[in-house]
Protein 1
Amino acid sequence: MSTESAELIEKKPSEALLSKRRKKLISDPLVDDNPITIQVLGICSALAVTTQMQPTLVMAISVIFVMVMANLTISLLRNTIPSRVRIIVQLAVVATLVTLVNEVLKAFAYDMYKELSVFVGLIITNCIVMGRLEAYALGNKPYDAILDGFGSALGYSWIILAVAFFRELLGSGSVFGVAIYDPISGLFGENFSLATNGLMVSPVGAFIILGLIIWVQRTKTGYVEH
Amino acid sequence: MQQSNAYIITFSVILTVVLGLLLSGTSQLLGPTQKKAVELDTKKQILGAVLDASEIRAMKPEEILDFYDKRITSKVVDAEGNEIEEDEEGNTLIAENVNVAKNYKMDPAKRKYPVFIFHAEGNESDPEAIIVQVYGAGLWDEIWGFLALDTDLNTIEGVTFGHKGETPGLGARITEGNVQNRYQGKKIFDESGEFQSVAMQKGEGKDYEGEDHKVDGLSGATITANGVNAMLENYLKAYKAYFEKLKDDSSSEIAVLN
C-alpha cells in the first residue's frame, strides 16, 4: 500500500510511543481501511461465528491475540526469514498460535471450544492475518507491527460484534444470551409475542447485515471502489 | 536477498523444533485440565437429559460433579440387557468411559451400552429416570445424545443432543433447548407395547401435541433430523432388552418402577 511505503521513509530515530503515525496504524483499519467492510477479507468467519454475541466475542479476542503475536513474531524474525520460504514460515507461526488458542479454550472454556473449534482453526486461513504479515510485519519494526496487527484485528472484531449483535437480537431475540424479546412482549400483555427472524440465524442474515453496514459506512465516508 | 539452501533448511528445522516443543509443552501442561473439562462436559450432558439447562448453568463445576455423584448411578449393559462389569480383558467397565463411537462400529449385538440411573439423593433404590446414551451420524459428522426415560420406561423426560460439525443455524440447532424440549412427554412404545421410537417430522412449525411418537422437525436440516431419528431408533431398540428386563425382574432395585 502506498501510504505504508511513504511512512517508512519519514521514520525518525526516536518517535513518541503513540505518535500520530502510530495512532493511525490502529485507527485506520477501524473505519477507513477496515479489513471486512473495505478490503472485504475474513468474510468466511464473519458469517460463521456471528449468530451469537458470546462466541463472537471469544472469536474476536482470539483473532486479536493471534494477529498481535503473529505480527510480533514475524517482525522479530523479519531479517532472518528466508524469503523463498516466508509464506510457509508465516503459516507455521500462525498455525502454532491458533493451536495454542484452541488448546487454552479446550482447557478453560470447553463450551466455547465445542462451539468454536472449527472456526478458531480457520483463523489460520483468515486472509487478514496472512495479509498483514506479508504486507506489514515482514518490513516493519516489532512495535509498529504489534500496533498494526492490533488495529486490523480490532477493525475485524468490531464489525463481527456489530453483525452478531443484530443477528442475535433479531434472530434469537436476545443479546449475550439475555432474553430481550420476552420481557418486551411481556409489556404488551399475555398474547403478544415478538417473532424472531429465522433468516438472521442463517448465514444469509450475516450477508444482509454486512451489506447494510458497508452501505451505511460508504455513504458516510464517500468511499468508492476503484 | 537470496539465501543458500543450507540456510533455508537450517532455519526451517530450527523453526519446526521450536514450534513443536512449544505445542507439545502446552499440550502436556494443559492435558489434565482438558481431561477434567471433558469429564465435566459429559456429566453436564447426562444431567442435561433430566435437568433444565438453566439449572445446570446456575451450578458451579464442583457442584455439578457433586450432584452427579449423589444422584447418578451408572452401569453398563449388553445387547441382551444383562449387566456387565468387566470387558473381554477383565478390566472393570466404567459407564462414563465407554467409548460410544468405537462401539458404534461394532455389531449391535456386541456393543456395550452405558446406562445412567438418576435417583433420589444417595438412594439408589428410588430411581427417578433412566438415562441412555445414543449415537449416530448427522449430515457432516457424528451426532450423539442422552435420553432420559421416566420410570414407566416409556415416556421421555428429556434429551440432550450434541454434534461435531452440523451446519450452524440449521442442523446445529439440535443442541438448542427449544428443540430438545420438543421431545418431552413423547413416548417410545405405543399403547399395545410395540416399539415405535420417536421421530422428527419433515417441516417445522406444526403442532404435534397429542401425537406420542412425532416431534416437530428442523426446517432446512432434514438430513440432520433424519440422523437424529435413526440414532434414536437404533439405540432405543438396542436398549429395549434391558428395559424389558427391568420391567420383568422383580428382584431388581428398579422393580419399583412398575
Note: DSSP finds six helices and eight strands in chain B.
Protein 2
Amino acid sequence: MSTVSDFSLSTPSGADAGLTPKQLAAKYGLAVSGKRPSLPTYVRQLWARRHFILAFATARLVAQYTTAKLGQVWQVLTPLLNCSVFFLVFGVMMKSRDSVPVYLAWLCVGVFVFQFSQSAVQSGTRSIADNLGLIRALHFPRACMPVAFTVIQLQQLLISMVVLVGIVLANGQMPHMTWLLIIPALLLQCLFNTGLALIMARVGSKASDISQLMPFILRTWMYVSGVMYSIQSAIASWPPLAKTIMALNPATIYMDLMRYAFMPDSFNKHIYHGGKDAAGHALAQHLTLPHHVWLTAGVWAVVAFAVGFVFFWKAEEEYGRG
Amino acid sequence: MADIAMSNFREAQRDVPNTATTDPARVPTVVVDNVHIVYKVHGAGSGKGSATSALSRLVSRKRSPSIREVHAVRGLSFTAYKGEAVGLIGSNGSGKSTMLAAIAGLLPPERGAIYTNGQPSLLGVNAALMNDLTGDRNVILGCLAMGMTPEEVKSRYQEIVDFSGINEKGDFISLPMRTYSSGMAARLRFSIAAAKTHDVLLIDEALATGDQKFQKRSEARIRELRQGAGTVFLVSHNNKAIRDTCERTIWIEKGELVMDGHTDEVVSAYEKHNRA
C-alpha cells in the first residue's frame, strides 16, 4: 500500500534542488491560493467586470418572469398592486389621505422608493447563497453579485418610474423644474442601497438564519419610515432627540427628497395650511423637508457605500467556501 | 538570478513535453506544502435538534454537538510544474475533489499552505452556471465573468459554441440551461472555461459525462492549454482518460499520498491494488 516511489516528480531539480516548498514558492513568485487582493487591486478588478455586472443584471431581470404567463407585465403590475393595497388600507380605511396633500401620488412615490431599498437589501442578502454555483465555477470579484442585484433593482425602479409619472400626472401634478432633482436623489439612494446590499451579502453568506429575520426587520423599517402615513404628524409630540433620530432615517430622507422632486406644491405652506374646513373636516397639512436634507442623504450614501465595500472585501476569500 | 530564471522559463516553454522529468529547469506552478483539510459538517450526528436545546446552546455558548469534523486531507505535499498534466486518482472519498477545491482557494487548509501561480480555475461536474438563463447567455456571461472584454466575447462566441457541440442536433443554445442533459451542460461549462488560457486549470470529473467525440476534443484542448505553459489537474475514475491526458499521476487514499510518479507506473499499481 505505502509504496511511495523513491524518486518523486515533485522534488525540485537543478538549481532548485534542496529548496523547501515555501522557498520554492517564494522564488517563483507563487501566491497563497485564494488570498484576498488588496483594496486598490480589488477595485480595479471590479471595474474591469463592469460589463459582466450589467449583462448579468439585464439577463437576470429578463429571466425573472420567464415562467409567468404575463411575463414582463409583472414588473409594472407588482408595484401597482402594492400601491392599491396600501391605498385601500391606509388611504381609505384609516383616513391617512385626509391629512396629506395629493395622497395617492405621495403614497406611490413612497412605496416605490422604499421598495427600491427594501428589495436591494433582500436580494443582497441572498446574492451569494443563490449564486454559489457561479461563484464556485468561475473566478471573479465576488462584489459583482450584490452590485449586480442592486443594478437589477434600479432597472426595476426605472420601469416603475414610468408608472409613477403616469400616476403623478393623473393626480394633477404638472411637470416642474424640481423633477430634475429626481436624478441626484436616485443616484444617492443607489449608492446607499449598494452599500447596504454589500453589507447584507456578507452577513447573509455567513448566517443563513438572517434571511428568516429579514422580513421582520424590513417591515419594522417600513412602518417607522412613514411610507403609508405621514410620520411627521405621528411624532409631533415626541421629545426633540427622538424627532431628530426619526428625521435621520435614510428611508425617510430618500422618500422625502423624491416626494419633493415630484410634488413641490405639497411642501408649500401657502397652498396647504392644515386646520379644518367650515364643515369640520381636517384639511391637508403641508409637508416639510428636514434640515440639511441633501447633506444627510449624501452622507448616508457615501458612508453606507464605503463601509459596505470594505466590509464585503474583508471576507472576499471566504465566499463560496463550505 | 532573475536572468537565469527568465532563460529557464523560455527553455521550459520551448520544449514542453520533456520538461516534466528531464529538464532541470522546471518552473513550479502549484506548491502544496503539508496540507491538512478539515471539514466542519453542520447538522450531522444524532444530537437533539429541538428549539430549546438550540437556545440553551446559544446561552451557554457551547459548540453544537451536531458539528462533526471530517479530516479529509492529511498532510499532502506535492509540486506541479509548468506544462504538466497531473492526474489524481483514488477511490471515492479519498480526498481528490477536496484537494482540487483547496488548490482553487475554495477551501482553507487547516494546516500547511498552498501556493499557486495566478488564480486557478476549478471545473467541477456539478458546478452549475446560471440554470434559468439560455445557453448563449451563459456563454456570454461566463466569458465576461472571467474578465474578457465584450469584443473578445463576440469574437470567441462562435468558437465556444462550436467546440461544445451543443448545436449539433438543432438550436439548443437558445434554450434555458435547465433543459440541458447533464452531459450537454458539462460540455458547455467546459467549453466556456476552456476558452480562456489558464495558468492552472483544475478539472474534476467534468469530462466524464461528455460523449466520445467531445472527450477527444477536450483532450486536445487540454494539450493546447499545457503547451500554453499552463498546468492541468484532472480528477477522474476513468483510468483511460488519465492515461491519455496525463503523464504524471498522484494516487491519494484516505487523504494521504500513496504514490506520485509516471502515469503508467502509478495507474498500473492502482489497478493492481483494486483487483486485489
Note: Residues 133 and 176 of chain B are 5 Å apart (CA to CA).
